[in-house]
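Quick one: Soluble quino protein glucose dehydrogenase from Tothia fuscella, structure tokens please.
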Amino acid sequence: MILSLVFAGLAVASPLVQRDCPAVAGSPKYAAPKVAKGFTARVIITGLKTPRQLLFDSEGNLLVMQNRKELTAYKMAYDGGCVKTTGSKRVLDANLNHGVDLTADGKTLFASNIDKIWSWGYDAKEMKTTTPPVKWMEGMRNTDHTTRTLLLSKKVPGQLLVSLGSGANVDYRALDINSGISQIRAFDVSGPPKVYKYTDGKVIGWGLRNSIGLAENPVDGGIWSNENGSDDMKRDQKDIHETSPGEEVNFHGYLNGTASVEQGKNYGYPDCASTWGVENIPRNEGLAVGKQFYIGGSTTTDASDSKCQKDYIPARITLPPHWAPIDIAFNSKATAAYMTSRGSWNLANPDGYKVFAISFANGQPVHPASSTKAAIPILESGDLSSCKGVLAMVGLGTCYFRPSGIAFDPKGNLYVASEISGEVYVIQREDGASVDSVTLETPGKLMQ
Ligand SMILES: *[C@@H]1O[C@H](CO)[C@@H](O)[C@H](O)[C@H]1NC(C)=O
Ligand SMILES: *[C@@H]1O[C@H](CO)[C@@H](O)[C@H](O)[C@H]1NC(C)=O
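--- reply ---
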């Protein structure tokens, strides 16, 4: 009995060992990122210009938004289980920078730049647009954070979510809901085209400094974002920026009309931020990881830690400071949200040049909001010392591995763009199982 089970197990195991699949020759040209036990990562596309959001179309082609260069479509092939590209096509032009998504039926493509949003008819078989652009939005050019992440709901077709960040580290315009600053809003794009202003949209969340990663839980339709928090933070003149604020993973309810306490609410920025290093914060009575504290200096007359905790929605998960999270991809059963972070420039010891996962069950993270261990590392820069200081942030120097876009293909392989090196990695399981199907219960151990 035991013997036959063992044999049955052997019979179903895939013979493919992913680490034997070839990477693009000579890649990467820098210290290879560390990868969690059980996973493999290899470069399958090189030579890109600042790749940002990734997505798969209805024919399984990989679309890569190259910041101010083009949107490129790659034909994918699964050569004995080793994924590779077999050709590419320029789909859209250099006018775009970050946001891109497809409607639920896969037939309409939306893309953004700092100011505008357009849509095009899209033919996935031919990897090309089929109509001239339709303009949906203009007048967003009012911040120095330039990304306008787009999310087209697959659960409630016709709903387009747009995230717009702050214009400064601490931007007090965000205190006014009518400013449109540091918000996520929803727009109806199911009807005849109309050119919206950002403030025409329904507020999904506000007081969100710069929530670049946006995703919809594919099982229950819950909306999630990750937020890039403030730099150079002080409290009572004490510099606390090395350990606070934590970056935030926020929940925004559903788009199907079901009420939630979170939706449309204020998440605290610019007055309040998520606590990470409690012990370094002066007057830390009552603070704990994930609780919001008042950062000081506001025009809000009754601003205080207790107001931050009473009147604003806390992060569902708090991450270490300055990781700069930038994208989110749920697996198909929504048991994990895989996230990318571009990494810190505001830390003495660089951190956050990573791909990590947060385990989910029943639509919510498994870890409590007070946890410091929710992020399970999957991939991390192999040379953090190359990422010290402000120059690394702007792409000078040798800090090459900076994860940006992330997406699953229809077979459950995970893809990650590396912005400064201009590459796309595929992440797979060593044993040939799909990443999509993996259950992440215990923190992974990073291997070189
Ligand atoms: C909306 O989605 C939630 C989560 O899946 C579900 O519980 C609720 O019943 C849905 N509401 C409607 C009106 O369909
Ligand atoms: C996160 O915020 C910092 C500080 O404003 C900024 O330098 C960085 O570019 C932001 N990250 C992204 C991905 O926009």
